[in-house]
Amino acid sequence: MKVLKKATLKVRDRMRTKMERNILAQIHHPFIVRLHYAFQTEGKLYLILDFLRGGDLFTRLSKEVMFTEEDVKFYLAELALALDHLHSLGIVYRDLKPENILLDSDGHINVTDFGLSKESIDSDQKTYSFCGTVEYMAPEVVNRRGHSTAADWWSLGVLMYEMLTGNLPFHGQNRKETMTLILKAKLSMPQFLSVHAQGLLRALFKRNPANRLGAGPDGMTQIKNHPFFATIDWLRLLARQIDPPFKPTLTAPDETHYFDPEFTRKTPRDSPALPPSATAHELFRGFSFVAPSILEEGRERHRGPLANPARMHIPEARPSSIHDEYELKEDLGVGTYSVCKRCIHKVTRAEYAVKIIAKSKRDPSEEVDVLLRYSHHANIVKLFAVYEDEVSVYLVEELCRGGELLSRIIAQRHFSEREAAAVMLKLANAVSYLHANQVVHRDLKPSNVMYASAKADADSIRIIDFGFAKQLRAENGLLMTPCYTAQFVAPEVLKKQGYDMSCDVWSLGVLLYTMLSGEAPFATGANDTPSQILERVGEGRFSLCGPMWANVSELAKDIVKRMLHVDPSKRLPAKQILVHPWIVQRNSLPAANLHYSTDPAKIKGAIEQTYKAIGCAANPVPLCPVNASALARRRRQHRPKSASGL
């Protein structure tokens, strides 16, 4: 348990603590420490983490002086997988050292302490903070010229050198001398190391981060292919199927033998905390967290209509009535299961949106769970409070003043590729975050993507309405519930197959198609019938030709094709969208506006008519056999069959 006193935290430390909590809440990886709970009292913050009884790597290294190359290879490989996972989420770790690497009871590593980590760093972006432990800092961190995820690979090299030799590669008499050595000194390479070990060290110790092994979108592939790791089976390693070189001998669940006596000899005390500052409560709003695995224990909530709505209870709901604290105003939107109204807090006069869900129509437990866990993400609508009465559940959320994304775009009738890429970056980042936590939205239609700010800037993009969201629990990761909205649905859903996260990517692809062309890919007019639309969806038939695509770059067309691929196994994963060249090179994309030729009313009309038709249909529209599709005929081949039971 990590306990922090709010009053003793400096402003910088407060931000780092909030950052650490946010990072730990979104990560689930076999070689990264897990956060189980986060909560706070009036004066303190608490983080409940895995109890890793094998101690830290520093303690083991200090006892053995140095490790064998086989030992080092194992630890480095697990660390590389952990770092790659962080980098895929846009996180730079920045504090890799033996003290921050713990061993579990089986001997596998767990990276811990994310207080110095940095979020939202893309492969082409840099951060300029000077932080970390100086001996492990990369040259670009030391000279403060800006660093990216490549800095972590330098630190991995320092750790490798230390484990192999028992010494640090760059270590002066003082801090300044150490920094000078990092920037200028020639690496002293011990000759007792193997050729492959020396080669890996030299590749990691490139002072130009662009040339460093691990840098760039294919960096992890290059590391895996390095001869030093030739004997590593990476899939088995990730599955924890390879035995660690050292397994702690443990005799009791609370064994602390492998921890440094400097810590274990101290008496744990929960001393009183000083009163926090007036702003501390606001800063740590939303700090509380419960791991999804804990919430799921012993319960599987029903999502359909309830036989007795009055007996339903949302544990997270506040005991008071919403009418005691808020004034409910005009409708903002009306859906099948809910209505959204503007509301005003009676004390602060702050404006919010309240989603009112009828208990008789749907159990909102899953939606509440998802928002409580994940609405702290910058591009997911914020949930502030939950209320309930006998007939309804009330979700108080942030008010999205900028309106729907697509409505604003087609109303202004022009949009640039650069703007579209900025929007897609935010959406893909949010969806990648959800998918990393095994959550699928399942209803990413245009009306569920809004601007929080009236200025309609990309940073204020919000994904809303998690009424159809699902937290994946099946071992194969697939959902079986047929749930879809009009043309923003993947082909395998229409065919009653199980579907997974690629459905959300498909929906983002439809949205991107419309942003770039001003047209919907599968509903081309107000007179299209539902069967025509669904047939096009099922065959993956859409066009990237015509006047509206003449000024669109080939990179943009490539990412659209990858996101709308009819085969979900070949569809671009959300995290890969973030490293696609069209996103990475977005600042160099054309800034000229793409003028839409289609009447905005016709675009919306075609989409809305399709939604209505599908919503009213009692049965899904029958589809042609796969081998009769235009795509199959053109390729002269059948699509692969799904295995039974999927």
Automatic annotation (TrEMBL):
Reaction it catalyzes: L-seryl-[protein] + ATP = O-phospho-L-seryl-[protein] + ADP + H(+); L-threonyl-[protein] + ATP = O-phospho-L-threonyl-[protein] + ADP + H(+)
EC number: 2.7.11.1
Gene3D superfamilies found in the cross-reference section: Phosphorylase Kinase, domain 1 (3.30.200.20), Transferase(Phosphotransferase) domain 1 (1.10.510.10)
Record-stated family: Belongs to the protein kinase superfamily. AGC Ser/Thr protein kinase family. S6 kinase subfamily.
PANTHER family: RIBOSOMAL PROTEIN S6 KINASE
Ranges for domain AGC-kinase C-terminal: 230-299
Active site: 95 (proton acceptor), 443 (proton acceptor)
Named cofactor requirement(s): Mg(2+)
Protein name per UniProt: non-specific serine/threonine protein kinase
Keywords recorded for this protein, A-Z: ATP-binding, Kinase, Nucleotide-binding, Phosphoprotein, Repeat, Serine/threonine-protein kinase, Transferase
Domain Protein kinase: 1-229, 326-583
Enzyme class, broadest EC rank: transferase
An individual GO BP term: intracellular signal transduction
Binding positions (ATP): 2, 332-340, 355, 359
InterPro entries the UniProt entry points to: AGC-kinase_C, Kinase-like_dom_sf, Pkinase_C, Prot_kinase_dom, Protein_kinase_ATP_BS, Ribosomal_S6_kinase_II, RSK_N, Ser/Thr_kinase_AS
GO MF term (any one): ATP binding
